[in-house]
Structures are given as structure tokens and as C-alpha cells.
Predict the structure.
Amino acid sequence: MERDAVDLIVEQWARARPDLDASPVNVLGRLSRVTRIVEREFQALFSEFGLQMGEFDVLGTLVRAGAPGGMTAGELTRHSMKTAGAITNRLDRLVAKGFVTRDLDPANRRTVIVALTPAGRELIDRVIGAHLDNSRRLLVALDPHQQGDLAATLRTLLISLGDQAKDTDDVSAAGEA
């Protein structure tokens, strides 16, 4: 059987500290390494479209979770699970690139509505197909049954850690739009 870098780390801990159970590293070390590799691959793709990963997340959230007229800045923050400051920075960049607008709600001038521009909609429509193709490429080593089993196992872990959807409209994860 082929070994990965985590196998070596666990073996080193077993030699250096045989009194410790380093078995959690088998799972969490691999999750961490997979995350770094996948994020690097995602960013390489998004860069081809002139986007950062967080900008893609905002555009994707506006499409999949937003109403046709846009979302309030607060809704966008909640759906993207990022801080208001992080969302503000992303919105500033996306407004400057002409992909979103940020306007006061005429019904409540204290509320900001964020909406895709036609250029932003065209961009996300192109990027999402490429992103999903790239995601399939990254999972090619796992057959569909293995992918399903892994997704179910990770769902169980996430729920146990408190990452639960509040309702059907409150689901999001960065870079997974």
C-alpha cells in the first residue's frame, strides 16, 4: 500500500512518544492536508477568471442563496459564514471590478442590498461550471460510492462539531458555491 505524508507523521509520533495515541492525526492531519491542496487548486482556477476564492464565494452565494433582486449585506454575511469585515472587503473588490452593486434599500435606507451586475452574473455562470469540473477532477481517485460514504462521514463529523444548517436557506461553505 502506498504511504502518504501523514503515515510518516504518525509513525514518527509512535517512535518519539509511544505513550501517546496519535491516531487522530490519521483523520485530522489528512483533512488538513486535503483542505490545503484543494484550496490551492481552487485558487488556481479562480485566478484564471481574475477572482480570489472569497470573491467567488460571494458571487456564488448571491446566485444560490439570494433573491433575484439581491440580498442584504447581513444576509450575505450570514450565508457565507464570514465576518462582516471580510464580506465588506470582498464586496469592495467586487464592486470595483463591476461584478456587484451595493445600494441602499429604498424601503429601509439603513439596509444595503447587494446584487449581481450582468457582468457578475455572466462571470459566475462561467466560473461555476469550471469549478464543478475542477472539483470532479480532484475527486477522481474516489468512485461515486466512496464519495458518498466520505460525504456522509464528514457530515456526521461536522454536525457533531456544531456545524448544522438552521434551515434550508442557511447553508453555505466558502469555495463550495
